[in-house]
Amino acid sequence: MLQTCIPLLIGIGLIYYQFSSFNETELERIKSYFRNANYFYVFLSILISLFGYWSRAYRWKYSLNHLGFQPKFHNSFFAVSISYLLNLTIPRSGEISRAMILKKYEGVPFDKGFGTIVAERVVDLLIFLLFVITAFLLQFEKISAFIFSHVSPNKIILLLAVGCIGLIFFLFIWRWAKWPIILKIKSKFNGLVEGMTSILKMKTKWKYLAHSFFIWFSYLMMFYVCVFSIPETANITFDVVIMGFIFGTLAVGFTNGGVGAFPISIAKVLVLYGIAEGAGTALGWIIWTSQTLLTIVLGLTSYLLLNIFNKN
């Protein structure tokens, strides 16, 4: 219950904070952005997202085939769509539902199905880190100037020192401690490593990785095309788009599906590049609303079709 309520309350608080900071003139301007937006690009963004759903469901078959299972594609697609919907309620509950659906309709043991999903998350994390590194290299001057303008060099040195000490302490505990919780974490970590190495052993690993990159490419392009829906954001450069995409992705994990956090993160990032906060706020809400509606509609539809397609 707390896993659902706390992030949701944080999201509602962020929405209140964001809109209470605007005066009536600014709020009216934000409304005009919504009224005058070119929704062709929003629908194009939704279409691109559907390719991402398809690719994620299709990628899943490679790891399941490697384990000796041949699930029907429609069941994999429905499971993925339902998982996105459930993640809007309880974070990470969608991963459990995916494994449960395949166990019920395809006979895939829960632990094996869930293991393939964990492996996916590791691959996805590594690809996301590539985006972060790319953005940092492209925007090094802007990021460093922002950091040094808000944090003094002495504080940065102190943080680095504390971080190094903390890392040494962690490695010492990780290597020699025999506490039950450490042993449990080690077991989980070993499972992640095993999941990753199983991907490397696949005969179809290159197809698996190609789909993995395509999935994240579709996420990025879904975000990118929406930029053209508002004239004030249509001319921002691609490296700025990557920055917005990264912070938006991080915000999705901060609250339930990014409610409140996603739009405010987009607005704050774009302000650094001279985009009016009202325009950035409108863009953030347009992207978040369209994708959330897609998640809800596709998830509910998949839930209904799951029973119809598996009647026999």
Automatic annotation (TrEMBL):
Compartments where found: Cell membrane
InterPro entries in alphabetical order: L-PG_synthase/AglD
Recorded superkingdom: Bacteria
Regions crossing the membrane: 39-56, 122-140, 156-177, 208-230, 236-254, 266-287, 293-309
Membrane topology note: Multi-pass membrane protein
Pfam families: LPG_synthase_TM (PF03706)
Keyword Membrane attached: yes
Descriptive protein name: Flippase-like domain-containing protein
Native source organism of the sequence: Flavobacterium jejuense
Taxonomic path: Bacteria, Pseudomonadati, Bacteroidota, Flavobacteriia, Flavobacteriales
